[in-house]
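Q: Give me the 3D complex with dihydroflavine-adenine dinucleotide.
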Amino acid sequence: SGQIFSQCMTVQSSNYTRTSDQTIYTSNSSSYSSILQSSQQNPRWLNSTSKPLLIVTPLKESEIQAALLCSRNLGLQVRVRSGGHDYEGLSYLCKTPFVIIDLINLRSVKVDVADQTAWVQSGATLGELYYSIAMKSGSLGFPAGLCPTVGIGGHFSGGGFGTLMRKHGLAADNVIDARLIDVNGRILDRRTMGEDLFWAIRGGGGSSFGIILSWKIKLVQIPKIVTVFTVHKTLAQGASKLVHRWQYIADKFHEDLFIRIIIENVGSGKEKKVQVSFNSLFLGGIDRLVPLMDQSFPELGLQAKDCIEMSWIQSVQYFAGFQKDQSPEVLLSRDPLWKSNFKAKSDYVKQPIPEVALNGIWERFQQDQTVFMIMDPYGGRMNEILEFEIPFPHRKGNLFNIQYIVKWDVNSVEETNKHIHWIRMLYRFMSPYVSRSPRGAYINYKDLDLGSNKQDNTSYLEASAWGTKYFKGNFKRLAQVKSKVDPDNFFRNEQSIPPLSALF
Ligand code: FDA
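A: Here is the predicted complex, encoded as structure tokens.
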């Protein structure tokens, strides 16, 4: 199959020569397994039988065009992989014969300091982007996620948020142009793709509209000095009251102040206890932060000694789990930092969760499992951007996002089922306290529990069950765009956008 495919590629692309055969890997190739697993963040599916017939790692855009057209001609589905961090493994799993187009070799970042913009290819990581910006300027940054190994392609496609979200919005809010290959193999930019498709790719989720090659982004101003802190509290130290209070104020803080909450159970066995961490980035120095905290969140009792001043790029390292004095080159490593079997789910909260329900969460955390809840505050810039400006709809009215995560070491069916059951029960318990009709979820924390497309005939109406959770009223417009640009639904997976025409 590799030979037929590479013959097809030679025919499809005049630029593509036989010397590039090294970019096509079949299951007979010695490096097939290592390439397949290379960026795979969730090892839950290592033993999966749905492996690709081929993995293509194109070196140039014409090879992606050729790989796409050959896959179509040979009746194969395509999975596009940028950073491989998809929560449900959708960039490298498929139930029918398929090809992975892995963009690992398309990872250039070109920063234009004078214009305050950059072009970044989809195969780059967030770490590579942040590093490249910081090497060119000490006063520019970019608002995207915290984990440096996350790929640009999937992340920007689904929104992308991190510590700068309250000041500058999502990564997708700051995309000003893009280049993609459409289903017919044409390369389009913002002008030639038109505003509907350009709207859809900024938050409508990867894998529905084409292969995004690169993104032009607007960089944002960053102060020379920022401040970080992490304050840990146990229940005995009043964590419950602090979490309760945080819900009323975190979305209303000054937009320079981002304080997220990480709830976890630390210790081992019967000694496990709940720990709540208040983890913050402030866009300014300690002298401004401490009075601001005294005024807006005095209950936390933050003191100057809890805070560390640093440059923005050092804060990126800090949030990624590195030390501020490590060299920024640590951000270039593509070795996944927190690789483990996991299942995650998400929610949006519009009314503070009552204390009695917080107690229910603490109870569920008192057990011998590795579990987390991360609460990311919204408000600020997120409130100013309208729900339909890009497909990501969770704006004004949302206090914060919750991500629930459970991790485990042993990859057996029994263990997997046990942990997935736990997280589903927690999710069920939370239902009265979170957004409803629809119960909102974040597409970048992909969750197939919400629903799944059928293999071939995807119905828009059926898909609305999960689509409106991710996209609310924008789901219909996404399906309309899909009908126009890929009416035969070539680009598809378990949660891709179906064409609106498929109304059965
Ligand atoms: P991957 O390559 O797996 O792609 C994800 C999806 O997009 C797949 O369906 C894929 O086919 C499609 N796709 C990828 N590249 C494409 C392209 N070029 N064109 C078209 N479709 C494409 N999120 C967040 O907002 N803030 C955060 O701080 C974090 N932190 C974080 C940490 C860790 C450890 C993980 C595992 C994940 C996160 N995320 C996150 C979630 C992350 O944003 C999400 O998983 C992204 O989709 C990952 O993008 P990748 O390119 O790495 O994934």
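A quick observation: The chain is about 30% helix and 20% strand.
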